[in-house]
Amino acid sequence: MMPEISLNILDVAENSVRADAKLIEITVAICTKEDTLTVLIKDDGCGMSVQQLEQVQDPFFTTRTTRKVGLGVPFLKQAAEMTGGGFEITSEAGKGTKVESVFRLSHIDRMPLGDMSETIYTLVVFNEHTHFRYTYSYDERVFTLDTREMREIVGEDVSFSQREVSLFIKDYLVENKKEVDDENGGKI
Amino acid sequence: MKSLDELKAIREKVQGTIGMRYEGPEQTRVVIGMATCGIAAGARPILAAVAQMVQEEHLANVNVSQTGCIGLCQYEPILEVMEPGKDKVTYVNMTPEKALEVMRMHVKGGQIVRKYTVGTTQK
User: Fold this and answer.
1) Which of A87, A91, A92, B39 can bridge A48 by disulfide, Cβ–Cβ 3.0-4.6 Å?
2) What kind of fold does domain B4-122 have according to CATH?
3) B10:A2 CB<8 A
């Protein structure tokens, strides 16, 4: 098991990167009224066949050849389901994949969201050729980071791993999340 | 809210310095395993710490990247150092502190940190 939801998100989003997605959309939505924390990871990558889609939820399936187990998707599924939440994965070959998990916010077994900012930072800076759109919402408050907008500003010739740019991305994620959290009940 | 406007100013500032980063045969590659096994064992903060050091110390000849499962899941987090013309060195059971030690001693100083390598750990 992963100790934080944000690590599950990183792991499953890495699958999208490997599926050659051009755009990966990650949404974390906290809704206190409905007592839910919803995580959505959607990509326009190579997708999966009906057969693969069934297999991917089975821990003893992987596309990898170095070992016999693939735990990324099953971990996320288990983490959501043990809070009484739900899990759904839909995919179409050639079109992309969507993974949605709902956690019951107040459930004792819901693991902490963890360091979402570091997860997004890692994805954005180490996969520069993939675009990301990240939306974090907590009840009414929302903030978004879209690497297409960032790319437009910095241009094609400046790397996200360039020190100043990298620091900006880190601060943008941390400060805006904190602001959204502080408006509400604080960190989830 | 922090806005993207700041990024415009950063763009102006760094424009002159770009082109410093190059990928060539003289580069040392530092690779961190970021599959499920690596992530679960704590690879994410290691990658962040190593990348931060490379940026802060302007180590232009070091390239940090991530990879999938290396096949030694029980030894994750794993960090590999590939220097041009030398054998790959695999460091296992890493923490951010140990990884930074490897960066200082090996990547910058040229001394392999034997106590953390896979050969030492397996014995």
Assistant:
1) A91
2) Glutaredoxin (3.40.30)
3) no
Contact call for residues A13 and A39 (beta carbons, < 8 A): no
- The reply to whether residue A179 touches residue B1, judged by beta carbons under 8 angstroms, is yes
Q: What is the pTM for the complete model shown? A: 0.91
pLDDT in tens, A8-64: 999 999 999 999 999 999 999 999 999 999 999 999 999 988 888 888 877 776 665
Mean of the per-residue pLDDT values of chain B = 89
In this predicted complex, what is the ipTM? 0.87
- Chain B from 35 to 54: CB within 8 A of any A CB: 35-36, 39-40, 44-45, 47-48, 51
C-alpha–C-alpha distance, residues A163 and A161, integer Å: 6
Closest alpha carbon within chain A to B74:
A67
What DSSP string describes B56-92? HTT-TTEEEEEES--S-GGG-S-EEEE-TTS--EEE-
**Does B21 contact A at CB distance below 8 Å?**
yes
Contact A114, A3 (CB under 8 A): yes
| Segments making up each domain of chain B, as ranges | 4-122
Query: At A65, which amino acid appears?
Result: T
Q: Which two tokens stand for residue A166?
A: 């990298």
